[in-house]
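job 3f2a | input accepted
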Amino acid sequence: MLETLLTMQQRLNATPHLLRLGRLFCETVLIEVEDQSFYLEFRDGRLVSVTPGPSTRTPWRFALRTDRAALEAFWEPLPKPGFHDIFGLVKIGRGRIDGDILTLVKNLRFFKEFMALGRLQGNEERPA
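job 3f2a | predicted structure (128 res):
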């Protein structure tokens, strides 16, 4: 999971339109997948750090919580209905969003496109 998030960080840095969309986004986001937690710190639309958790000392603005199988289905090149979107995961009961929803909604396109950077492209294999 950590390798995928680091790959997403590299892809974000190579995607100018996404950096432009997120230029005002300066928050820490919690991604929780079963028993693993990751704190993604964004500064001016760039992912500056990915810190494994859990940590009771790391404040976060909003959290996306899901299970590994759902996230892997979300990251397929052409996800099935319900797995195509973070709100789709919530709707089918495979995800939960907690925290400051207003901050998420204000930056929704940026965050949704960032999460889609984990999707496999071409004949890539998922990092372990």
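job 3f2a | The chain has a mean pLDDT of 92.
job 3f2a | closed
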